[in-house]
Design a protein that fits this description.
Helix content is about 40%, strand content about 15%. The chain has about 550 residues and is an alpha+beta fold.
């Protein structure tokens, strides 16, 4: 009898499981097909079968909203929030449901709950048609920081509104905005900036806002230099890069191409290291490597240099260089708008570019090197090239090409990869783990550098933990576990675009406090090799392979 009951129970369980899978498939199909009534029916069945599944409740509440069953949305969304399903999102869903019921107070209350739960789409409130009926409510305007008349507010009060809103949103949305500098220091900085507004030029206030956001201590929290309008920022049209030997001009506008290859010594008579100390507070970054990557822009942005008292005039500056004979070269460089971006004449011969400088625009590509038996892959952005050219399809091709060519090693170059959608890295991790031949020490090399950041730094952490990759080059631009995922905020008076880091990404283990994943083989960029179109990282890898 017991055996019979067990067989009956297992049969019923199997039937129930199969039915649940079918219902889930039908629910997905209905949602993606925008058949909202069907989606409601299938998700209702799923939540009845599995009442403690957060995802079912979240999708059910969304389906109810789309089906305009507003009264039913409220309890479903509340249940989803109770189970931890993206509370900010379900409170926002509730707000839209209350708006469908034309309940002003409850709509505003739900929006406030979404904001308190770190909803990062505050700007979306302002453009959402569902909230048109509360657009004139001062409580709604206050949520957006727009509780003032932009046409009549004074310049001083307008900028103060921006400062207050930037700080409010940074503390509301950031993972922990006060953690690095401390609340007291940040509050003191804001008080001084607010007080100084009447005597500061507009660009000085913008740079002050950049410094405020940089106090968050991570590279995803920043205030963008204005790229248009009356606040448009400028640049001194030379390209700088910090090599082992110092800062060199790697490219320049036509009028200044004679500066190519010179080493920067000072700006307006201020030694370069002292100038760096001046502009550093305006640079958002969690490590010295991140700051190094971003220093060249600060050192060529007149508004930043002027605000930090490195230069006296905002429209020009005297730069002092040294040539290879040790002779001093001085040049007064005129500022030009950052947009449209100036065209630069490169210092090196681009017709003989090494692999790592061959194509930095394409998100990913590979090339087999028959002479060294190495398959070189450059991975420049964590995004699909197109709907048909995806990373999921790309990585199997890489490993197949390596197998077909009997390559001795695969090199994955991510030194220029500034990030993207970190979930798209999973296909690379899977491809490596499934490769018995190349997931071995000495068979897989990964080149990192100061520009390896965000989703690419996340990849480094996962590769370090899950594979046998040998890292070559410079440290990555961020730690393996970091605060990131910037959400966009526009300041209400000036319209300046800001980004605020809202999430903590853990890619290794909870005790990992490393500033970065350091290279196993150091290969720091040098001017000597750069101008010869040589790659120190690849040379180090080939040397390692020969030794092996």
């Amino acid at each position: 009898m017991r055996t019979l009951l067990l067989i009956i129970s297992l049969t019923l369980f199997g039937a129930a499981s199969a039915q649940t899978v079918t219902d889930l498939h039908n629910a997905y199909e209905a949602m993606y097909g925008r058949r909202w009534d069907d989606a409601v029916k299938f998700y209702k069945k799923l939540v009845d079968e599995s009442p403690e599944n957060p995802d079912y409740w979240g999708s059910y509440s969304q389906a109810l909203l789309e089906a305009k069953k507003f009264s039913e949305v409220i309890p479903a969304a509340e249940k989803a929030a109770t189970l931890g399903y993206f509370p900010w999102r379900v409170y926002y869903t509730q707000a839209k449901a209350y708006s469908g019921l034309a309940d002003r107070d409850k709509t505003l209350s739900a929006l406030q709950r979404a904001l308190n739960a770190k909803w990062y789409g505050g700007e979306q409130f302002g453009s959402e048609p569902a909230f048109d009926f509360i657009r004139d409510d001062v409580r709604f305007k206050r949520m957006l920081g727009a509780d003032f008349d932009k046409a009549t507010i004074s310049r001083e009060e307008g900028w103060r509104k921006d400062i207050d809103y930037a700080l409010r949103e940074a503390r509301r949305q950031h993972y922990d905005f006060d953690a690095v500098r401390g609340k007291k220091a940040i509050d003191g900085f804001c008080r001084r900036l607010r007080s100084d507004v009447p005597k500061l030029k507009d660009h000085e206030i913008v740079v002050g806002l950049q410094e405020l956001m940089a106090m968050g201590g991570d590279g995803h929290t920043w205030a963008l230099a204005p790229q248009s309008g009356s606040l448009l920022f400028h640049t001194f049209p030379i390209q700088l890069f910090r090599f082992k030997e110092g800062f060199y001009v790697t490219g320049a506008a036509e009028a200044y191409k004679h500066l190519n290859g010179l080493r920067l010594q000072s700006i307006e008579g201020i030694p370069i290291e002292k100038a760096i100390d001046g502009v550093k507070p305006t640079i958002s970054g969690e490590t010295s490597v991140t700051v190094d990557a971003r220093l060249p822009r600060a050192l060529t942005t007149p508004e930043v240099l002027h605000t930090k008292r490195v230069i006296k005039q905002v429209d020009q500056a005297k730069y002092e260089f040294m040539d290879k004979q040790g002779k001093t070269v001085q040049e007064v460089i005129k500022a030009v708008p950052q947009q449209p971006a100036p065209t630069f004449v490169p210092a090196r011969n681009v017709d003989q570019s090494p692999l790592y400088l061959k194509d930095r625009i394409k998100p990913y590509w590979f090339e087999y090197q028959a002479d060294s038996k190495v398959l070189f892959t450059q991975y420049n952005a964590v995004r699909d090239a197109s709907e048909t050219d995806t990373l999921r399809a790309f990585w199997p091709k890489v490993f197949k090409a390596a197998e077909d060519n009997k390559a001795e090693a695969i090199v994955i170059d991510i030194r220029w990869n500034g990030g993207g959608n970190l979930f798209l890295n999973d296909s690379l991790i899977k491809a490596i783990i499934s490769s018995a031949k190349f997931n071995e020490v000495g068979k897989l090399y990964v080149i990192t550098g100061r520009h390896t950041y965000s989703a690419a730094a996340s990849l480094v952490g996962k590769l370090d933990r899950m594979t046998e990759a040998v890292f070559v080059g410079e440290p990555a631009g961020a730690s393996p576990n970091f605060v990131g995922e910037g959400s966009v905020v526009f300041l209400p008076y000036s319209g300046i675009r800001c980004s605020i880091s809202s999430l903590y990404w853990q890619n290794t283990h909870g005790m990992d406090r490393r500033s970065w994943v350091g290279p196993h083989i150091n290969a720091e960029p040098t001017w000597e090799l750069f101008i010869q179109n040589r790659d120190p990282a690849m040379e180090a890898i080939l040397k390692s392979l020969r030794a092996a």
